[in-house]
Write a structure and sequence with these properties.
Length: 254
């Protein structure tokens, strides 16, 4: 996706736009870091489950991975989205990319919220469809860039990638639902989405009347604590709550 966007931005706008876009793209990839190790581990477990035809275990892994990655992804995105405008005070040349970060970040959160869907497909008897879906994704990015970049410039590439990634994940979700009966719905999942929307909205609208450095520190501390409290109080995920409990012990809190 990055290479397609870089080539098209260079051709349709300028090389400087490519630089700004690339920085924001790599900033957003930080949101996906927690998913990497989980996907490496889960793909092996899912492959073994397919070997035993244990679809209940695959469904359980699919649901748990989606919920936990959604909770973690929302946290990383809303903190990043809240802090970014302050950080860009020191990097004014990159201010045009702020909404690129927003749209790519939303796309990444949706990608995390759909869990290990691609890993399940590629280890399933219908593994070939994963290749077709990846090619379709690249086509979506190319076509949507042709539409959005001329209209919205640099941000248009972010919008195009956002729409493409959300669309392909919806197709993967439908594919798993139709062919294997795997679903994502649970009360905790819905609560996590609502919490995510509320926190991301707060990050957009709440501005602190301090210097950028002090504001960034306060945002990180207050945002992390408040999000952790909500996740624990609503008992959204036992696995994520476990992480918060361990962090509390490390910093000496009871």
């Amino acid at each position: 996706v990055l290479y397609i966007d870089q080539l098209m931005l260079n051709k349709m706008i300028s090389l400087s736009a490519v630089g700004v876009y690339s920085v924001m793209f790599f900033a957003v990839t930080l949101i996906a870091i927690p998913a990497r190790n989980l996907r490496k581990i889960s793909s092996v477990v899912v492959a073994e489950s397919w070997k035993r035809d244990d679809r209940e275990e695959i469904q359980m892994i699919y649901k748990k991975s989606s919920l936990n990655l959604l909770i973690i992804g929302v946290y990383l995105f809303f903190i990043g989205w809240w802090i970014l405008p302050l950080a860009l005070e020191y990097l004014p040349d990159y201010k045009d990319g702020i909404y690129v970060f927003f749209f790519l970040g939303i796309a990444r959160v949706v990608d995390l919220a759909t869990g290990i869907n691609s890993d399940i497909i590629e280890t399933s008897p219908k593994y070939k469809y994963n290749t077709y879906l990846n090619l379709l994704f690249a086509l979506f990015v190319f076509v949507s860039n042709l539409f959005f970049i001329p209209r919205f410039g640099l941000v248009g590439a972010g919008i195009a990638s956002c729409i493409s990634l959300i669309t392909i994940n919806l197709i993967r979700w439908y594919f798993l639902k139709r062919h294997f009966g795997f679903g994502l719905y649970s009360k905790a999942y819905v609560k996590a989405i609502i919490v995510g929307v509320l926190f991301i909205s707060c990050a957009h609208f709440i501005k602190l009347p301090f210097s950028p450095i002090i504001s960034m520190i306060l945002i990180f501390v207050v945002g992390s604590v408040s999000y952790g409290i909500v996740v624990v109080k609503l008992r959204l995920s036992e696995e994520v709550i476990d992480i918060f409990v361990k962090l509390k012990k490390r910093v000496g809190l009871k």
